From TrEMBL:
Homotetramer; dimer of dimers. Pathway: Amino-acid biosynthesis; L-lysine biosynthesis via DAP pathway; (S)-tetrahydrodipicolinate from L-aspartate: step 3/4. The record marks T44, Y107 as: Part of a proton relay during catalysis. SUPFAM superfamilies: Aldolase (SSF51569). The gene is dapA. This is 4-hydroxy-tetrahydrodipicolinate synthase. It catalyses: L-aspartate 4-semialdehyde + pyruvate = (2S,4S)-4-hydroxy-2,3,4,5-tetrahydrodipicolinate + H2O + H(+). Keywords: Amino-acid biosynthesis, Cytoplasm, Diaminopimelate biosynthesis, Lyase, Lysine biosynthesis, Schiff base.
Length: 292
């Protein structure tokens, strides 16, 4: 259903932490102009944990409105409360998002049966297409391939963002699920290898600052033009790694501020990028040909 480079979009903020919606609109246009294949609003990179319900829904609404159908919008609507996740997913459906991205419930540590019932309940409550999101390094909750296989039988569960970076895990999901759902990488450093295995694209942090190159790399990977894709990926590898030198989205918001695309606002408990890392991120940006 979706493919290519799908940016995990930051949520622009003023220095006081309030939402900067004009900057959000400019970012959407920036991605449309630079070939991004889909926009993911209010995911991890969009600071979903610190946006309240009204802000969360407003960012989704504005992103969809500004995209104007030029590029699909996938709304992050996951929560560790099933009821809250359903409410957010209904909000995204009302805003006419093209799909929703639902992270596994964090902190609660549900069983695999709990994960199955959580996602099943959301899918049955809201008919919008839904993409599972497994990122155990953040959630302390790992959705195993056998659970993904069960959920793949639910008609409006259409994909999974697998962010472990484990290619054996990706192979297992592809083997189990076949064409029932699409696999997307959620780890920029291994995304090309995942695409070459059969993933349909990458939900990407790097695409925030290098959208054109990420689009080209993903497209070449899907076309099995491996040599050309790896040449681009080599240029991007510094960003793939160093945009996580501190917790995402700290480095990527700093980089976008350096590019003049957003202001420096970020919400506690996250803090601006430490000065000792500035030059490291700058070097990665230079290697990718990013203009400051």
């Amino acid at each position: 259903m979706f493919h290519g480079s799908m940016v995990a979009l930051v949520t622009p903020m003023h220095e006081d932490g309030s939402l900067d919606l004009p900057a959000l609109r400019r970012l959407v246009d920036f991605h449309v102009e630079n070939g991004t294949d889909a926009i993911v609003a209010v995911g991890t990179t969009g600071e979903s944990p610190t946006l309240d319900m009204d802000e969360h829904c407003e960012v989704i609404r504005v992103t969809v409105e500004q995209a104007r159908g030029r590029v699909p919008v996938i709304a992050g609507t996951g929560a560790n409360s099933t009821t809250e996740a359903i409410e957010l997913t209904r909000c995204a459906e009302k805003a006419r998002a093209d799909a929703c991205l639902l992270v596994t419930p964090y902190y609660n540590k549900p069983t695999q049966e709990g994960l199955y019932l959580h996602h099943k309940a959301i899918a049955e409550a809201v008919p919008i297409p839904q993409i599972l999101y497994n990122v155990p390094g953040r959630t302390a909750c790992d959705m195993l391939p056998e659970t993904v296989e069960r959920l793949a039988d639910i008609p409006n569960i259409v994909g999974i963002k697998e962010a472990t970076g484990n290619l054996d895990r990706a192979r297992d999901i592809l083997r189990r699920c076949g064409d029932k759902i699409d696999l997307y990488s959620g780890d920029d450093a291994t995304a090309l290898d995942c695409i070459l295995l059969g993933a349909k694209g990458d939900i990407s942090v790097t695409a925030n600052v290098a959208p054109k190159l990420m689009h080209e790399m993903c497209q070449l990977g899907q076309e099995r033009r491996e040599k050309e894709a790896r040449a681009i990926n080599d240029r991007l590898m510094g960003l793939h790694k160093n945009l996580f030198i501190e917790a995402n989205p700290i480095p990527v918001k700093w980089a976008l501020n350096e590019m003049g695309l957003i202001k420096g606002g970020i919400r506690l408990p996250l803090t601006p990028l430490s000065g000792k890392h500035h030059e490291t991120v700058r070097q990665a940006m230079r290697a990718a040909g990013i203009t400051f």
